[in-house]
Design goal:
The complex is a heterotrimer. By secondary structure, chain A is mainly α. Chain A has 8 helices and 2 strands, in the order H-H-H-E-H-H-H-E-H-H. Chain A folds into 2 domains: 117 residues, no CATH class; 73 residues, no CATH class. A two-stranded antiparallel ribbon of chain A has the order 1-2. In chain A, helix 1 packs across helix 5 and helix 3 packs antiparallel against helix 8. By secondary structure, chain B is mainly alpha-helical. Chain B has a domain of 73 residues. In chain B, helix 3 packs across helix 6. A 5-stranded parallel sheet of chain C has the order 1-5-4-2-3. The longest helix of chain C is centred in the N-terminal third of the chain and has 16 residues. Chain C is elongated and about 80 Å long. The chains are: A mainly alpha, B mainly alpha, C alpha/beta. Chains A and B meet through helix 1, helix 2, helix 3, strand 1 and helix 4 of A and helix 2, helix 3, helix 6, helix 7 and helix 8 of B.
């Protein structure tokens, strides 16, 4: 059955309508969760607000469980789902650069759009920065092309990388998330409150 | 605590709803959510418009302009416009719509904006190198259990924690 | 921990635990294992009977695609109405892949007997292509049961006789039987709309 558009169940003209609707839902939930505030986002790094960890982990687990069960029930063909390919070192270095951007700028691209929508000027500036960053990367691309294409491991899945079964990994991830929720709630209660 | 829980939705409920949104994205289109791809499409389209020859000869832009569809029409652009709309709706309903610069009392607005710009530049470039940002690579990647998703997530948050100590003043 | 979280936590753990128990299902297009192939080969689910195919043809079933796997000369000599020709030696070429690896049609392979069609079916199954079947008994059975059905002896049970009547009808439809004329088999090959599985490209 699914993915509906890739399988031709829904014609591709609907693609853009669906994109917009999903975007609205995405933006709405981000804003509702408090992701439109850089100080909520940064809280995860200082222990005064773990909203990011809670939302992020819960969302990843919900979607993961949904996909695994949908696949099992035959509602979605997991082999047609896009799995972002692992280029190991570019992913690590890119992640490190993004991490630095996160702690300095206080947003990530999705949340900055959402925050800019409700009038946060710092988010708008952050967005300008994103455009600049992409432009710089694009112009300098010939310099790091080789690195960008290096250590390609293909569309590998994390449970294969770790050498365990899919079910075991999913179960372990749920347990880790639950432990993280409990521990961070405990930390948050003991951290000095920050007013914002 | 009481006051805050009124201000924003319960984090776990929000996460669950975000997960359902992500699942819907997979179910309909076969790909997850994304954000940094949209500005990329805009940049590619803009460069193509201003300097077509340059765009055609560049190994970066030419990857995207050779597709039959104009890059500006890409899926992610519409999705991100949706995010803008969704954020606006939620902000309006909660009475959070107002122009302001949010920053720690220890720094000035100007400092905040400089660091926001710097962070944006780093995030924009890093998202290209890492093939996606927090939503596209880390969140969607984790949902499909791709190794890249977990690696990117760990790298982003790991670096965040390491650097957090040095830039404490920016936030608390 | 807050009491209101107990219920969701239990559900989460339960869903995770079930995942541990159910077998991992992989739809990715990997090659089929030899064991699996043998298992499927010994089954009969790959066969379509000649009667069923004739019935589908008469009713113009849009999901039916007949594929003649014999060499081209044989196909030119004689083929079933509407069949296309994919000689078995070109089964692995890219040209025919969209026809064989698809989800929209029921492909029915046929040859004179079943051995060539069976081989074609195995090649497809091994690559994990679905929706491919074999015409039971091949063209030989087609001639026997559809074009020239034998009249059963009179003391046979009546259902046998009904079946004969049906076959007789089909036989007349396909220009065999009483009409006595040569089978009219130069029907134009239908344009097949191939719906191909497409892997989604990522964005961000």
């Amino acid at each position: 059955m699914g993915p509906l558009i890739a399988q031709g169940v829904i014609s591709s003209e609907w693609n853009y309508v669906i994109a917009f609707m999903i975007g609205i839902s995405f933006g709405f939930v981000l804003e509702r969760a408090g992701f439109s505030s850089s100080r909520v986002l940064a809280g995860v790094f200082y222990g005064y607000d773990f909203t990011v960890l809670r939302v992020f982990f819960t969302a990843a687990i919900t979607a993961m469980l949904g996909l695994l069960y949908f696949n099992y029930l035959g509602w979605i063909d997991l082999s047609l789902i896009y799995v972002n390919p692992t280029f190991l070192w570019p992913a690590i270095v890119g992640g490190v650069i993004m991490g630095a951007g996160f702690i300095l700028g206080g947003f990530c691209p999705g949340t900055s759009v959402c925050a800019a929508a409700i009038g946060k000027i710092d988010a708008m500036i952050f967005l300008v920065g994103i455009f600049l960053g992409i432009f710089i990367f694009a112009e300098g691309y010939p310099l790091f092309k080789e690195f960008y294409m290096s250590s390609n491991l293909g569309d590998i899945k994390v449970f294969d990388s770790l050498g365990i079964s899919e079910g075991l990994f999913a179960f372990a991830l749920i347990v880790i998330a639950l432990i993280a929720f409990i521990v961070t709630a405990w930390i948050q209660n003991r951290t000095k409150k920050v007013e914002y | 605590m009481k006051e805050k829980s009124k201000k924003y939705m319960n984090s776990y409920l929000a996460g669950f709803l975000l997960g359902l949104t992500l699942l819907a994205a997979f179910f309909f289109t076969g790909r997850g959510l994304g954000a940094s791809g949209a500005p990329k499409s805009v940049i590619v389209a803009a460069v193509d418009l201003v300097a077509h020859e340059h765009a055609k000869s560049s190994p970066f832009y030419s990857k995207y302009i050779e597709k039959e569809e104009p890059p500006i029409k890409a899926w992610l652009v519409l999705e991100v416009l949706g995010v803008l709309m969704g954020g606006l709706i939620s902000g309006a309903l909660a009475g959070r719509l107002n122009l302001k610069i949010e920053h720690s009392p220890k720094i000035s607005s100007k400092t905040r904006l400089v660091f926001a710009l710097l962070g944006g530049i780093l995030f924009g470039a890093g998202a290209q190198l890492g093939r996606g940002c927090t939503s596209g690579a880390a969140l969607s990647g984790m949902a499909v259990l791709s190794t890249a998703g977990f690696v990117t997530m760990l790298a982003i948050f790991g670096t965040g924690y390491v650097l957090a100590f040095f830039v404490k003043k920016l936030w608390i | 921990m807050n009491k209101k979280y107990i219920f969701p936590v239990i559900i989460l753990l339960l869903l995770g635990a079930i995942l541990l128990l159910i077998p991992h299902k992989d739809n990715s297009q990997k090659e089929l294992s030899a064991e699996q192939l043998l298992l499927e080969m010994n089954g009969i689910s790959r066969f379509f009977s000649t009667e069923k195919v004739a019935d589908m043809m008469i009713n113009k079933d849009p999901s039916l695609l007949l594929i003649d796997v014999r060499p081209q000369e044989k196909y030119k000599e004689f083929h079933l109405p509407g069949a296309i020709n994919i000689p078995i030696d070109s089964f692995l070429t890219e040209t025919w892949k969209p026809y064989l690896n698809q989800i929209a049609m029921n492909n029915i392979f046929y040859s004179n007997g079943t051995s060539l069609a069976d081989a074609a079916w195995m090649i497809c199954r091994r690559q994990n292509f679905n929706n491919n079947y074999v015409l039971e008994g091949g063209l030989n059975a087609w001639v026997e049961t559809v074009l020239k059905p034998e009249k059963p002896v009179t003391d046979n049970p009546s259902e046998e006789f009904n079946k004969y009547q049906q076959q007789k009808g089909a036989s007349i439809f396909f220009g065999g039987g009483d009409a006595g004329a040569e089978s009219n088999i130069t029907a134009p090959v239908p344009k097949v709309q191939v719906k191909k599985k497409k892997k989604v490209q990522g964005g961000c």
